[in-house]
Amino acid sequence: MKTRWYKDAVVYQIYPRSFCDGNGDGVGDIRGIISKLDYIKSLGVDAVWLSPVYKSPNDDNGYDISDYRDIMDEFGTLDDWKEMIAGMHERGIRLVMDLVVNHTSDEHAWFVESRNKDSEYRDYYIWRRGRGKDGKKPPNNWTSNFTGPAWEYDEESGEWYLHLFSKKQPDLNWENPKVRQEVADICNYWFDLGVDGFRCDVITYISKKDGLPNGKPAFLLVGYEQYAVGPRYHEYIHELNERSFSRYDSMTVGESIGITPDNAFDAIDESVGELDSVFSFDHMSVDFRLNVLPKRFDLVKFKKVLDRWQQLPKTCQPTVFLENHDQPRCLPRFVGDYKDKRELAGMSLAAAILFLRATPYIYQGQEIGMTNCNFAVEDYKDIMSVNALATVKKVAPILMPYAKKVLLKRARDHARTPMQWTDGDNAGFSTAEPWMKVNPNFKDINVKDSEAREDSLLNFYRKAISYRKGKDVVISGDFSLVRPKHKDVFAYVREFKGQRLLVIANFKNKRVKFKLPNDFAFESSKLALANYKDAQDLQNNLLLREYEALVYEIK
Ligand code: GLC
Ligand code: CA
């Protein structure tokens, strides 16, 4: 039943609100996606991960769902969605939907009912009496991921409900078997409509610690690890796998804070019947401390983290990504000041990730090298940025300049500026004023211009994706880093039954010497991919140009 198609797949992530506006109201939508299906196909990707399109009051842009079985009005109708998935399948592209079931919207019918103490839905959520004589203190010290306490007081019933994200995102009570059956039914509903898999939002948060004990105090009022991988996590996911995932030729990928190379086997090995893969954030944390504060990017550490995932048994499928809708853009994040070499830098990053043993995810705009935006305070739209600014303003106004600086590096908004299609009005994203600021660099950075140039980053992505397709050495070859301690270059070799692939990517905007290790033997080499035209043949001593990326087949 399971073909495990994801082992040879590249996935393209669409954040629908910012991808393409089909009806001219300034908000991206499903008809907009339909109009770009040929473009998506032209990238050579095998699947799309679509961020949530379900009914939602949009407190967190669709990650707060009020009806799991229907489409958000702003995005279109279920019929539009059906046309979209049919168009994808016609083109050989699979559809992975977002599954947001740690919490619902507070406008979901279950939660509305649940506010009533006597309702059978009360136990769908996590309601508790408060502390203190009058119960006016939250039940424990947990903090929300969007700042502030993770509990909201409900006057009517005199109790508090848990929300690990905004107060409009109440956490579901997975201890309740009815909740777990509802989730399986939702998955099967979409599978029966043809979807090919799910990206499971903050899935490692679903099982809460018994008794909801106080956690370690959170930094900057932002909660995190203390909620991850609770005591019954594996049991719940195994059950969901049995009731749903295993019945279809599906792929699941968990957003799995707390899953590390040390415990990944139990979470994703093919033998355990849980999820097929997870997103880990370890490689995305090397330039941050305490999850939020910027720190210098350390390539050696970055390589080490990725290497640990590569060394997992072949029955555990790693993933790799440099961007998603919650992260700033990878340019210039991992490559420093690229000056006039933005696209070369993007190519070096692309080469580094696309030949790992992993399912690579490419986020919309990454393929043309979209960058962070120089936002003013009023440009921020994301609830996380807005809350963070409001909190700092309230509790430590003196830190405002620092908070602004952090957001310019860190805000999730950077990934959410409208996709830059052309150099025309609103970057070709919409005929109306977009819901969010367009990055002013769209005149230079856009799909139309990238299409027109053979040597663009976009065309490099296409070449690299098409080159990796179906190659055993990429899908299942062994992985070893070459010169793991080199500070400027990400190099590795893949090997499968005598075939070898050598990938060398200079992450710096400078010329760099790169010497192959003495015991690195090869008789002949063939250049398979490069981002400079006159790339050199392989030799033991290479002088790499700025951001030079080279992929060789070697014997
Ligand atoms: C995940 C999503 C993020 C969302 C959060 C709450 O981290 O990727 O966008 O805000 O979950 O659903
Ligand atoms: Ca629209």
Question: What does this entry look like structurally?
Answer:
There is one protein chain. This protein has 555 residues and is an alpha/beta fold. It has 15 helices and 22 strands. It has helices at 30-35, 37-43, 78-90, 109-114, 177-192, 233-243, 264-268, 299-310, 330-333, 342-354, 383-395, 400-410, 447-452, 457-468, 472-476, and strands spanning 11-14, 47-50, 54-55, 67-71, 94-99, 127-128, 151-154, 159-162, 197-200, 251-255, 277-279, 288-289, 293-294, 319-321, 359-363, 478-481, 489-496, 499-506, 512-515, 525-530, 541-544, 549-554. Helix 11 runs antiparallel to helix 12 (400-410). The two termini are 37 Å apart. The mean pLDDT is 96. Bound molecules: alpha-D-glucopyranose (GLC) and calcium ion (CA). Residues 60, 63, 100, 165, 201-202, 255, 325-326 line the site of alpha-D-glucopyranose (GLC).
Characteristic key phrases:
binds calcium ion, 555 residues, 5-stranded antiparallel beta sheet, globular, binds alpha-D-glucopyranose, 15 helices, 8-stranded parallel beta sheet
The biggest beta sheet is recorded as: 8 strands, parallel
Which molecules are bound in this entry?
Answer: alpha-D-glucopyranose, calcium ion
Q: So how many helices?
A: 15
Shape: globular
Global structural class: alpha/beta
What spatial order of strands do you see in the largest sheet?
A: 11-10-9-5-2-1-15-14
Mean model confidence by pLDDT? 96
